[in-house]
Amino acid sequence: MTFIYCIFAAIISALIEALRIKLSKGKVDNINKLWTYTIGFCMFGVCLALSVGYYDEIWPLDVMCYMIHFASVRGVIYDPLLNLLRGLSVGYTSKSTNSIIDRAVGNRVNFWVLRIIYLAIALISGFIWITLLRKAQGTY
Asked: FRET pair for 109, CA 20 to 30 Å: which of 9, 56, 97, 103?
């Protein structure tokens, strides 16, 4: 269920951001990072609460691992879906981006290669979170 919660959170975040851009009626065509991160943080809290509701306790290492998992799943789904909702090509990357990741990798890494990296990180961190950490706590 953890992976499903993260997918739904990414879809809802992209829908909210696309609606915000659409309601601005052409005045704003870019992504507002503060708004996006605020929504992402709230969605993270909801997903974490739903995911750990099955367990008696949560450890800081759990939260860190789940945060990596959440951010990676969001990286796989959010950007392509937001691009589609904005009427852009799925792999569109703005040349005037203010995204930390986009500025760090620039044009050196293909859009889809970056999504595959996000997916690999999501799968590995999800495996660690669900299997190893929960098993160590005796709640798996």
From this structure: 9
Q: Where are the alpha helices (DSSP H) in 24-140?
A: 33-52, 60-85, 100-105, 111-127, 134-137
Smallest Cα–Cα separation from 31: which of 108, 93, 91, 74? 93
Separation of alpha carbons 14 and 22, rounded Å: 12
Q: Which are the contacts of 19, defined by CB distance < 8 A and separation ≥ 6?
A: none
Give CA separation, 71 vs 38, 115, 117, 140, in Å: 13, 12, 12, 23
Band of residue 55 on the pLDDT scale cut at 50, 70, 90: low
- At residue 81 the predicted structure's pLDDT band, cuts being 50, 70 and 90, is very high
Question: Which phi and psi angles does 96 have, rounded to 5°?
Answer: -110, 45
In the prediction, which pLDDT does 109 show?
A: 73
Task: Tell me the C-alpha distance between 6 and 48, whole Å.
Answer: 9
